[in-house]
Structures are given as structure tokens and as C-alpha cells.
Amino acid sequence: MHREEIEQYAFLYLCGARDRRLLSGREKMTFADFDRLIYITAFLGLIHYNLKMWNQYSVQFQNQLERLDLSCETRTAPLHLSEYEEEICRQERWLSEFCSSAPNQEIQEYLRKVVERSI
Predict the structure, then answer these.
(1) What is the mean pLDDT of the chain?
(2) What does the DSSP 8-state code read for residue 81?
(3) Torsion angle, CA of 30/48/62/83, rounded to 10 degrees?
(4) Cα 26 from Cα 42, distance rounded (Å)
(5) 10: helix, coil or strand?
(6) Cα separations (Å) of 18 from 66, 78, 86, 110?
(7) For the whole prediction, is pTM greater than 0.90?
(8) pLDDT in tens, 85-106
């Protein structure tokens, strides 16, 4: 078994039902879902699976990614502290929701500990 497959199975074991539906194609993934899942897999250190997801889904979000890239390139002013704090809050919310949606209490507690140690 390849590293990306091991990481994929681990992630699917940890994630909630909706994320499993998104990743299996049973539910349509949005750009916001893609952004969130890419962040969470990177946060958890599942780099091989993160890359596999990127390769699999980035094509369908090419327009949004190009707009995001263009907005970053054309931005002349640095981020306001409030914009940075807003992004941090969004990422913390993603992690909290990911922990809460885990399949059972034991996994939820495990994920909360992992997140707390990493923040």
C-alpha cells in the first residue's frame, strides 16, 4: 500500500460522514469544502493525501484558484490584522467542526488533543 493510500484511509477513518460523502463523490464538493479539506489534511500532516486531493479536485476549481491567485498578485497593501485574525478564526472553526464531526467520542477526543498540541 502506498503512503497516500494509508493517509487516505486514516483521514476517512477520522472524518465525519459528510466529509466521507464529499470525498467519495456521493455529495458535490464546493470550493469552500475543498479549501477546508486541504487545510485540515495539511494541518494533520497528511501531506501525501493532501497532494492526492489537490491533484484530484483542483481542476474543477481552477477558476476560483486563478481568481484567488490574481487577487493575491494584485494586492498592494498588507493584510490588516483583522483580516489575518478572521482567517485564523475560520481555520480554528474548521478544526473544531472536524473534531466534533468525527465518528465517535473517542476519535473526537483524540482529534481535540492533536489540535490542542499543535496550536
Answers:
(1) 92
(2) H
(3) 70
(4) 23
(5) helix
(6) 27, 36, 25, 19
(7) no
(8) 999 999 999 999 999 999 999 9
